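Aggregate trends can hide what the representation actually does to any particular protein. For completeness, the protein is quoted in full, as a sequence line and a line of structure tokens.
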Amino acid sequence: MSIFLFTTLLCIMQFQLVLAQEGRPALPAETAESLRVLQALHEAFPQQLNGWKVDDESKIEGIQWFHDGGAAVRYPFPHEYKITYVSDLSPAEAELRRKAFDREQKDMMTKVEELEASNRIEVQVWINYFEDQSHSSSQPQLRNFPPFDLTIWGAKASKLFLGNWKVSKSQKLDDGYETDCLAAKNPAASMGQIQALKLIIRCSSGIREEFLKKVNLKALKSLIGQNFLDQKIITSSTPVEQELARPLEGKNVFRYVIDGGDFSNSQVNIKHSESMEQAYLRNNHPDPKVTTNAVTRLLVQEDGDTQKRTPYPFADITIPFIRKTGEFEVLKEEEMSGKKATFALEINCWNGCEWSISAINIKVKVNKYDLVGGFVEGTFSGDGMAAFRPHEHTDRKPFPVKIKDGYFRIKRKADRY
């Protein structure tokens, strides 16, 4: 099963804790650079515009968290910004505009869409995103619109590109046209360098060019090539990942006994899998001295059963420490506020899960914690609560169960930052 399906299953299980998300906190230098770019974009777009008012805008604050912690190390540093304007016409002016649309010979749907588009301007800016795909009912118009390197002008929106963009593919489909654009990355550039910018404007075509005259296009152009983030700060503070010189042989193991209600000392044994069972460190800060947010995660899943539609068991446990052995307990969700440990077992899954088991009081003991390539090994037992098809909101009430003889031995995969 893919990581996407893993994520889908976790959504079904309704994990709400921030710690369930992959990633790490941003370094101060990353937060400062994010704030600098957002401030530059804020200043490039008009805050006072005759006939318009700002309805919504991205928060002008630096990024605090990377949900994919490796993104800041492996990929160019991305930035996103959005600002929306709504019409600020007087009632009399708004009525004149409506009547002007009514006088035109257009079908009702077109009139409604264009009238709405004439009362709203939506702007999005994407920095260091290198691909774009458009789908339109009619062939998009390519235009030369300085200082942009490439402009695609459509009936409802325009896309304007800076930073070595080109149309990589354009084809006619049964229901319209599909156009792909691609920006070339500079592999030798620092991850902090701004290489590509994509600007999307959604509004009436008659308003678009007039609005662009109010935007500081020179300021947008000047962002390309800027590099205020010293990549040495990032790479030098990223801990060197330790691995065993030779990975240990052996199969993954995850098993337990469940008793109570519909279960009578039922044995659950998750079949060995190399790809769907893993133990890894997550949310580790690039600064090795700051590990307060780091935890160890066990994800346990059988291979291939989602394709075969064969029911399978699943487990997800968060160990609230890293690179050591020890004991911890997981209590009811309402009693775990601010704590990092989690415990969830699922039984008979493939289209949702028939049974979901949460913790009332589960004790977990980690007896072995190898380097990457070795195993994380331990035991667990205690009191849980079993719910029947909770994603379907059935009338069956959850009931308490005993979890006994729990044992795991899971190969430790590469750490995630």
In short: The first strand starts at residue 24 and ends at 25. The chain has two domains: 24-236, 241-411.
